Amino acid sequence: MTASKGFPGFPEGNPSATPVPGPFFSELLPAIDHLGELKLTLYVLWLLHRKPESVPYLQREELLGDDLLQEALAGSGPAFADALSDALERAVARGTLLKGSLEISGGEQEFYFLNSPSGRAAAQALQQGEWRPSGDPAQPLELRLERPNIFNLYEQNIGPLTPMIADRLREAEKTYPETWVEEAIGIAVENNVRKWRYVEAILEDWQTRGRNEREDRGDTEKARRRYRQGKFRDFWDD
Hints:
Blueprint: H1 22-31, H2 35-49, E1 58-59, H3 60-64, H4 67-73, H5 80-94, E2 97-104, E3 107-114, H6 117-127, E4 131-136, E5 139-143, H7 149-157, H8 163-175, H9 178-190, H10 196-209, H11 220-226
Antiparallel strand pairs: 1-3, 2-3, 4-5
């Protein structure tokens, strides 16, 4: 019998390191009692880290065709498809992964998202019909072009979109003119306070006092100082 080869060790510098969220070690690792689920969870973290930001999901068919994953799960069930289904169901039931589906080419395809802020937002977007088939097997889903501009403004300037934030953005879009939102986000960026609640406070202030009646209009430095003082100061100390 030929002895199995041992692990040669990690390379120096390890430029391809995969970040693992802290809660994996403090919450998930003590709770996971199934080897297949543990292997799948780690492998999904690795796979998603290798994908571009525009592809925050994994397709079931993609996982079924993954040779490395098949080798990893070979000992956790009589067949790879069954072992994968079992591990996915366990990860979804635990809340590590979020599952969504979309009809593509006459058949329903399953997609899986990490239960993170960006993953939750992407899963909700799929549920709300904001994703559509792209026709590209390597990237089967794409966001619809008619995605609200306020979402793009938020993600480009403030941070990842979450389901709760998405609801507040839709409400703001109905309440305030788009130019107000753009300017308020600009002030938040200039002051380096990248919090939506701070942007909301500015918008509420304009709605109460009148945006066109502000004494700091046309004076960028004065405006910046104004939104660092008074009730706005609270956002700097969070």
